[in-house]
Amino acid sequence: MELSREIKDAYFDAKGRNGSPRLAKDLQASGVNVSRTTVARHMRNMGLRSKLSKKFRVTTDASHNYNVAPNLLNREFNQKEPMRACVSDITYICCKDGFLYLTCVIDLFDRKLIGWSISDNLTASGTVIPAIRMANRNRPFKEGMIFHSDRGIQYACKQTVNLLQYHRVEQSMSGKGNCWDNAVAESFFKSFKTELIYGTKLKTKEQMCLDVFEYIESWYNHKRRFSALGNLTIDEFWKQYNIKKQLIKNVA
């Protein structure tokens, strides 16, 4: 009975976003000795399910006459150091009073959303530019860092190209019509819509902006577990990284 309550509390604390593997990791991190299969069994008994995903849809428009950057990233999604490569993309959010557009910038080292913007228009100045500027404030760009995106006009336009060149960043773009070249950014949007939007009532733009902030800054960047990080949260992954870095420094 006690375990069922702890599983139920962890499930609702994550707002139904976690399935049994991540719930088990959360419980283990808080000192509860429980396996994934046990959590799954209790979830079935209580009728608890994680939110289901839906097919991702492309938002950016690649029909333009701007130059297209080569694919420098080449699907090297696992980076060993921070700020060696970032990926970015844009998605739409349907609201009661129209559409919003969310832009993300993700550091491939730890999958952290280091920059983002939410806008009611698809101009570069409303989407990509503020997201890039936030990313640079949170984690200053390194010279030669790869910034990867699709071929959308917001990324290919002079305003974005000039900003990235100013920071001495190498721009990279996916192959034509190849969503797998930007799989990490698309995976984020799939998780975002599954965990925050699908299965809920339409919200106003104002309420959605608040919910997006909470999802990114409270949940995704600090509490969500990632299979790419060994089912650690970003904070836990950074703690391990800094410990290893200090050990190497001490040995040297």
From TrEMBL:
Q: Which InterPro entries match?
A: HTH-like_dom, Integrase_cat-core, RNaseH-like_sf, RNaseH_sf, Transpos_IS3, Transposase_IS3/IS150/IS904
By its UniProt entry, which Pfam families does this protein fall under? HTH_21 (PF13276), rve (PF00665), rve_2 (PF13333)
Q: Which GO terms describe its biological process?
A: DNA integration
* Gene Ontology molecular function, alphabetical: nucleic acid binding
Domain Integrase catalytic: where?
78-242
Question: Which Gene3D superfamilies does the UniProt entry name for this protein?
Answer: Ribonuclease H-like superfamily/Ribonuclease H (3.30.420.10)
May I ask which residue range the UniProt record assigns to the signal sequence?
none
**PROSITE patterns annotated for this entry?**
INTEGRASE
Protein name, please?
Putative transposase OrfB
Q: What species is given as this protein's source?
A: Proteiniphilum saccharofermentans
